Amino acid sequence: DSGVTQTPKHLITATGQRVTLRCSPRSGDLSVYWYQQSLDQGLQFLIQYYNGEERAKGNILERFSAQQFPDLHSELNLSSLELGDSALYFCASSVETGAGTQYFGPGTRLTVL
Amino acid sequence: DAKTTQPPSMDCAEGRAANLPCNHSTISGNEYVYWYRQIHSQGPQYIIHGLKNNETNEMASLIITEDRKSSTLILPHATLRDTAVYYCIVRPFQETSGSRLTFGEGTQLTVNP
Predict the structure, then answer these.
(1) Which of A47-51, B61-65, B96-100 comes out lowest in average pLDDT?
(2) In chain B, what residues touch A98 (CB-CB under 8 Å)?
(3) Which of these, A57, A71, A97, B51, has the minimum number of CB atoms within 10 Å of its CB?
(4) Whole-angstrom Cα distance, residue B6 to residue B86?
(5) Could you tell me the CA-to-CA distances from B13 to A32, B19, B76, B83, B85 in Å, in that order?
């Protein structure tokens, strides 16, 4: 158990819908990272927040957005969902920003029908 | 970040040592070697990292060649639970402007009974 929690574990929705994925980092960690893993793209970095501020952006679509709240939990919002958004979404956390040692949660499996 | 090359798959007998190689010939002086693994559809798990000296922890040992162009992750007594995809990542220890882990294809290690 990494100490990072993600909810929900599974999410099934339809195209065009909007969903919110939630992540709680390890106690004491200020940085949160979001990654997407699909069959054809592998593990891809999406976005990073540190203490409430966006610090780095990867290949995140404009339909996707994220935020980190004062209690340090983070939410990833996915809107206008397409079939290709079906993937595993992982959250990771670290104590400091820019750390190479990151602790990953169990992931949320999103299925868009 | 430096590019890494890993064999796509390896097999190992249970109880024997698993030696996973990684080539990183373009590594820079400030870049560390990190290893993560991902057991089927679970969140990636940090294993170990190092700069130039050999490192050991409760999970594995990391051997980095003197010229730092390659490294080997050693699982001393592989078990069936070590079956996973192992990722070698080269990057700075800490990046002040934010961070990401860039995952390649990794090595699928299969431990056989």
Answers:
(1) B96-100
(2) 92, 94-99
(3) A71
(4) 9
(5) 37, 12, 11, 11, 16
